[in-house]
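Go through this fold for my students:
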Amino acid sequence: MTAAIAGLSVGGLALGLAAQDTVANLFGAVAIFMDKPFRIGDRIQLDSVDGTVETIGLRSTRVRNLDGHLITVPNKTMGNATITNVTRRPNIKTVMNIGITYDTPTEKVKRALQILQEVYKEHPKTFDCLIGFNKFADSALNIQVVHWWNSTDNNEYLAGLQEMNLAVKERFDKEGINFAFPSQTVYLKQDSDWRVDGPREGIQT
């Protein structure tokens, strides 16, 4: 009898824990349906998951990640997680640092700023754009471009960004404005007190 009671207790505990998870998942599903933090088709990010929502069920939500794998996330996890809805961002922000060489004359630096304004700021899909010569970097005069693309369509954004970047490259080439790359200048000092008067040991002539 004691063994039977113990068995029933263990079984009841297991059922209770299972029911607890089920109830938690149901409450998570209700929270998702009520709050609508995302919809089917939205790209979301939480913890290590980054992908597109495919289904929202009573027990779990299924997300197709960027590698193509289908990930099942319990709704109780969804209900307690901090979720970033990438699809619902109003625009796409890009920060670029464009370096030009230190031997660029001041007038050409000003011209570079003007070209960047004309290409990035005046593009029809630009929501906003900040451009400025912000620092003397190690190997370049650095111009920072902060650009907001007025759409959340990633394919459209990438095509537009490529179009603008190619336009900048073409116009810089025409103006003779050179992009910088990491480099070092080495100065050699000649010591007038040190000279070789003739053949010495270890020196071949």
In short: Residues 3-8 have pLDDT under 50 and may be disordered. The beta strands are 43-46, 49-56, 60-65, 70-74, 84-85, 92-100, 126-136, 141-149.
